[in-house]
Design a protein that fits this description.
- Helices cover about 30% and strands about 40% of the residues.
- The protein has a six-stranded antiparallel β-sheet, with no helix packed on it. A two-stranded antiparallel sheet has the order 2-3.
- The protein folds into two domains: about 40 residues; about 70 residues, no CATH class.
- Strand 4 and strand 5 form a beta hairpin.
- The protein is flat, with a radius of gyration of 23 Å.
- It is an alpha+beta fold and about 110 residues long.
Length: about 110
């Protein structure tokens, strides 16, 4: 009995949220803009991993640390590999449309 009441209350809450969203009159563009705001800001930090599967085998997992911020109207981002060992220390710096890479094995910096 309690489970049925909880289910009905949950359905009522979901319906209420749906009706409020429709009543607010948000367009698809407004919803997308609000979602994009969650990924933008004056400063952003993220850690990510990438696993590649090729020809039935798994390559070493790549770990990356990324920073991003807006400075003087230009967006700057820096990504640094933390793993695997052969990639560790390789860094990518992007300022608007310009991209530089620093290779950890040689220490050389190249603009791409």
């Amino acid at each position: 009995m309690k489970i049925q009441i909880i289910k009905r209350l949950s359905m009522l809450c979901a319906l209420a949220l749906l009706v409020t969203g429709i009543a607010a009159g948000q367009s698809a563009e407004e919803i997308v803009e609000r979602a994009d705001e969650a990924f933008t800001g004056s400063r952003i930090y993220s850690e990510s991993t990438l696993t590649i599967h090729r020809s039935g085998r798994t390559l070493p997992v790549q770990e990356m640390e990324s920073y991003g911020m807006e400075i003087g109207g230009d967006y700057h981002s820096l990504s640094v590999y933390r793993a695997p060992a052969r990639m560790k220390g390789t860094a990518y710096l992007m300022i608007e449309d310009d991209l530089w890479v620093r290779f950890s094995s040689t220490g050389r910096i190249r603009k791409l």
